[in-house]
Amino acid sequence: MKALRFGRSAALLSVAALALTACSSADNGGNGGASSTAEGGATSDVQGNLVGAGASSQEAAMTAWTQGVSSVAPNLTVQYSPDGSGAGREKFLQGATFFAGSDAAMDEEEAEQAKQVCGDQGAFHVPAYISPIAVAYNLPGVEENIKMDAETIARVFTGEITTWNDEAITSQNEGVELPDTPITVVHRSDDSGTTENFTAYLTEAAGDAWSYDEVETWPADITAESAQGTTGVVGLVSSNEGAITYADASAVDGLGTVDVKVGEEYVAYSSEAAAAAVEKSEANEDGSIELDRATTEAGVYPVVLVSYHIYCNQYQNQETVDQVKAFAEYVISEDGQSTAEGAAGNAPISAATRDAAMERIEAISVQG
After folding, report:
1. Model-level pTM greater than 0.90?
2. What angle do CA 16, 19, 22 make, to 5 degrees?
3. How many other C-beta atoms are found inside a 10 Å radius of the C-beta of residue 6?
4. Contact (CB, 8 A) for 145 and 256
5. What is the mean pLDDT of the segment spanning 41-48?
6. CA distance readout (Å), 297 to 32, 136, 152, 260, 280
7. What are the residue ranges of helices labelled H in 69-146?
8. Nearest by Cα to 259 from 175, 154, 130, 134
9. Cα 227 from Cα 337, distance rounded (Å)
10. Which secondary-structure segment (H or E) carries 233?
11. Is residue 241 over pLDDT 90?
């Protein structure tokens, strides 16, 4: 378990921890689990403060959701701290928040730890935010999107390819005049679900060019620059000519982006191409998604993250259940997804994904 990084006062953490304490013997099928939203649609009666933390990739969408939920629950306040996926899961597993935002699903150890704060039925994932991860760069004078296959992207990020006019890049970009500008690789300094998703793509698609496996923390032996969070890496690239990074596509306005080779074509990132990657993938029992990042199907952008909201199956009291349900249901609703799309440019979840998520959300119950 990584060290817990607190972003809130001890008093807030203590209150949230008490609110999240759940009995391990709780029964998910008990009558106590019916919320006001489930029984009579009385979401407008929900009130209080719901605290979450996690993925910085969700920051723009989360701002839209925390404001937009007032349209259905005007007396509910939602506070979200974009501390990064790893920190968000840690706070949730410590009982310091009611939910986590995470660009990576919980692993087996975390799923077991969740039972300590959620009871024996543990926690589950709702795919709330689907977005392409852009491979973004700062290269003034180059107007066209630069094309790269997975192997080339891996060799750039490991430092093997060091200039923009390297033959491995120019051979895929005929007619584009690329400068001899040195490449500066910028990565996330924090535990990051975006890093995990990006390195998962390299692991599956780049072959021997990437030997570091799927990791949430960037490999320490790769010489590169680093910054905290999505805004941090984008800001560092924006101020350094020749720099390149990976980041949620919603945050890379003003930077050039790589068209990624998929099969025999190069695919630019888009919400539609990211959604296509998810549609062709399978859901696990806990709500997380198994992505095929080595796909060769046309029109699919495989460098994608599915960012989750992680909730307990059970909470200590009806008030918390009602708060969680009201927010969770709004986020996955057509209105919630449309609102986030307008703010962040993410791909709205499909009807099938929404139905599966709603079934899990409606089953959230009170302990005992």
Report:
1. no
2. 125
3. 16
4. yes
5. 79
6. 47, 23, 20, 13, 10
7. 85-93, 108-118
8. 134
9. 29
10. helix 229-238
11. yes
